[in-house]
Request: fold
Amino acid sequence: MIKSFLMLGQSNMAGRGFINEVPPIYNERIQMLRNGRWQMMAEPINYDRPVAGVGLASSFADLLSQKYEEDVIGLIPCAEGGSALDEWAPDQMLFKHAVAQAKFAMQTSTLAGILWHQGESDCTDGHYQYYGSKLTSIMEALRHELNVPEIPILIGGLGDFLGKEGFGKGCSEYEQVNQAIMRFAQEHNNCYFITAKELTSNPDGIHVDAVSQRKFGVRYFEAFFGKKHILEPLVNEDELLNQIYTRKHTKSEQIYMLSVNFGVGNITYKEFAAKMLQINGA
Reply:
């Protein structure tokens, strides 16, 4: 069975972590919805821009796959970089697209959760005052449209690196947005807040970097599996990530990784053929 998760929000859900800064995650039991079919996960998962990169969903899904050994974890990428909360209103295209993708995925999977991270675009001009009520409208409409009234909703907080430098300097009201997000999670059933405390950013000052995205995914996993808010960084984040990175790859995963390296020009065909022989035990 495929347990699927809908990915919503803006660029820090889509992922902007630099791919070369962390070990890759390949797992044949994690699939992403792309071009109308389930494909083996590869980053960037949520290709909303040419700058898309590492997001939180990969480490989240890998840890889930270790807990649900009989299941496949499916990811439904619908996040859109730079999107404001109003663009996710039930009468707007981003909402409609996400619902359509989720319904399509539900033909071959069980929708098990909603992953949300958004708010940087609403950190100015007092938008935080209406954030909670607008978010409530969006999430209630999602649950209704998808007929999943009790589905877990995981909502990440904004990084405390905001408001200081680069593109993030203008996010002067991120603390108020965080408070609104936390209130929403605490006041609604099966909604869990995940802190971004101590996460670090790319040099642009607004996007969570690759190392921290991996840690963020671990926190989302702990929130989902433990059915609880994550209000502080976890003491075992590095341990759990090491568990992901040191897992022995299956033959199918090795072939996939080798094919990717050949396809992007990292190795020659001669090297590709030789390593294929090694994998196949010839």
User: Anything to note?
Assistant: The two ends are 34 Å apart (CA to CA). The mean pLDDT is 96. Strands lie at 2-9, 30-34, 37-40, 72-77, 110-117, 153-156, 191-194. The longest helix spans residues 128-145.
